[in-house]
Amino acid sequence: MAEVRIIHVYKNPPVEQRLIVRDGIKLSELLYRLKIRYDTAIVAINGTVVENAEKTRIYGKSEVAILDVLDGG
Questions:
Q1: Which domains does the chain have, with CATH numbers?
Q2: How many CB atoms lie within 10 A of CB 60?
Q3: How far is 36 from 68, CA to CA, in rounded Å?
Q4: Which of 4, 30, 58, 71 has its CB surrounded by the most CB atoms within 10 Å?
């Protein structure tokens, strides 16, 4: 299992959420669970911006920062 710290940076103030997810989950699956479209969001995992949510997997303890453009980001 992977522990994910999610920071919704488009909220003012930013909102933090912690989830336990399957180790190796695709970023696109995680965003789907959060009801965020990956084609309208800018996402960074552990400080690195992700270019392809379908090919990116999350392992271990990770910090995911999300800027959802549709929500006023």
A1: 2-71 (3.10.20.30)
A2: 11
A3: 7
A4: 30
* pLDDT tens for each residue of the chain, 73 residues long: 888 988 888 778 888 989 999 999 999 999 999 888 888 888 999 999 999 999 999 998 899 988 877 655 4
State the burial class of residue 9 (Cβ atoms within 10 Å of its Cβ: 0-12, 13-18, 19+).
middle
What is the Cα–Cα distance from 42 to 30, expressed in whole angstroms?
14
